[in-house]
Structures are given as structure tokens and as C-alpha cells.
Amino acid sequence: MNGKTVHDADPYWQTYYNDAFQFGMGAEDILQALAAVPAVHTWCDLGSGSESLLWSIPLTAHHLIAVDIDPERLAILSRFAARRQPRPAYETALTLCNRTRADFAQRCRALAGTIVADCLASPALPLAPASTDLITQFGLLGLTTDPPHFLDAWRRAHAPLAPGGWCAGANWIPEPSRQHGRVALTDRLYRHAFADAGIRPHLLRRVASSDPQFPSLWLYLGRKQ
Ligand SMILES: C[S@@+](CC[C@H](N)C(=O)[O-])C[C@H]1O[C@@H](n2cnc3c(N)ncnc32)[C@H](O)[C@@H]1O
């Protein structure tokens, strides 16, 4: 089940996080929140698309697995990681996070594998239970269709999280004409999802965005009990 992602692989790669860093659309808030996550060994980014390496900048992770339904986006990510060169927006992210180009190259090397999988449909993810120290998703779970679908996808997304492991993510809220067919995200729904998966929320906040198509986003961090 491929949710209604805003652009196909290549236009997405060209539109977001490419040229100048677009301040005011939530990315700097996400980078700042991720800086609070301690160093981890194994990180899994679900619905990663081509962008895991942007979110890798404030994180310290030894081993990254990127999961997406779209092999084309994962191929873009793998080619980019092999080059070890940040794009202009990533350069700004490095500066914001006090990281160097050498740090970026290290993050590229941490990409240990990619997995093509549907993270929003019923089979379990191809990751062992309690095998992962950090699970993230940026823009994936907001593609679910309603609260039961969100809760079910959240539960399966976090099943591979080890006790004491961290989760982090963000979901953009479309303007009303684009909301059709997407879950309505609320504080209450996130808290239900956290409780259901045995995760204690450390941050849950709605952030305003200057993007007219997606005027706000939810941002969270949590820790598995
Ligand atoms: C809004 S994009 C976000 C991409 C990336 N995480 C980022 O921060 O830019 C949503 C991503 O979810 C992926 N996706 C959509 N439906 C999916 C599904 N059912 N299972 C796994 N990935 C899915 C899309 O291919 C796309 O890469």
C-alpha cells in the first residue's frame, strides 16, 4: 500500500532538501529535536525515501537500515551515500548541528542496507523484534488513512524496538483540501499510540510551517519501556 506521497522519487529528491535549506518548514525543528537522542548502534528509518542522511546529521548511529516501499527512492539514497558529498541543504544542516563534512562521510558509511517493504500494510516488518535501538519515520505514518490504521502501523513500526530504545519522527499535516483519505493526527492519537506500544513520550509538539500545502507538522521523541 503506497500512501499518497507528495512527489515521485526524482521530483521529491529535487524539491526538498536540495538547494538552499528551506527554513520555516519544520526541518530545523526536527534536526534540533533529534540532537537529544543518545548515540545508538542500530537505527532503522522507515519510509526513508531518499532522505535518511539528512536526518542522520544530528544523530550518532553506527548502523543504518533504510526501509521504503519504493526501490527508486532507496536507489537514490544508496547512490548519494556512496558519493559521501552533502548537497547544499545538507551543508546548512551540518552547520546547524555543528557537524563537519567528515562527520557526514561517516554517516554515509553507516548506511548498512536498504529494504523494500510495505510499512503500512499488515505483515510484520522484516526486522527481528527488539533488534533496533532507534526507529524513525519522517512523513510515513501520516499517510495512514484513519486512526485504527495509524495505530496498527505505529504498533508494527515499533515492534523491532529494543527495551530502552528510542523512537523519533515527524508527520506533516496537509491543508484541508489535501486532507482527504489521510488520518487526522491529534495529540490524543499520538499518546494512544505511544501507550499502546509501551513507549514513553519525551517530546510531542505541533510545529507551524510556512509550507502552504502542509501548514504544520507533529514532531515526537519517545523511549521504549
Ligand atoms: C513524505 S515521503 C518522506 C520521505 C523521507 N522520510 C523524508 O523525510 O523526506 C514518504 C515516504 O514514505 C514512503 N512510503 C509510502 N507508502 C509506504 C509504505 N506503505 N511503506 C513504506 N514506505 C512507504 C514513500 O515512498 C516516501 O519515501
TrEMBL record:
Gene3D superfamilies: Vaccinia Virus protein VP39. This is Class I SAM-dependent methyltransferase. It comes from Micromonospora carbonacea. It comes from the Bacteria.
